[in-house]
Amino acid sequence: MNTMIENQKNHRWQIANVTAFAQNGVVKVSGHMKYSQSFAVRRGHVDIAVFTTKGELIFNTTATVRRRVMRKDGSYFTADLPEKISKNALIKVSFHNDNDHRNHEAI
Fold it and tell me: I need a surface site. Which of 34, 36, 73, 78 has the fewest CB within 10 A?
């Protein structure tokens, strides 16, 4: 499955990587957040949208950004999607800081 990171406008954080793979009857989508200053992602969510090869939206959901206590740069997100998603589908992810209500652009 192909993944694409969108909405990297904020300079305090970025989605560092995203993986998507089928496991135990679902498609797992997960990623890590990195930040350029000493600020961790405190509150936020990641929009996850799945598109066909023709660009048609077939599924969307959100994942909460969480922190791993025992890990440096420990902000991450994960979500389980239905396994019926095609291997040729495009999965787009976009972070939204819940503290910034100015503009929440959906994917």
Answer: 36
Torsion angle defined by CA atoms of residues 27, 13, 105 and 59, in that order, rounded to the nearest 10 degrees: 0
User: The whole model's pTM is what?
Assistant: 0.81
Q: Letter for the amino acid at 44?
A: G
SS3 readout for 15-48: EEEEEEEEECCEEEEEEEEECCCCCCCCCEEEEE
Dihedral of CA 24/68/93/45: which sign? positive
Measured over the CA atoms of residue 63, residue 10, residue 97 and residue 70, the dihedral's sign is positive
Give yes or no for a contact between 1 and 93, defined as CB atoms under 8 angstroms apart: no
pLDDT along the chain (107 residues), means of 10: 78 79 91 67 81 94 79 78 88 81 58
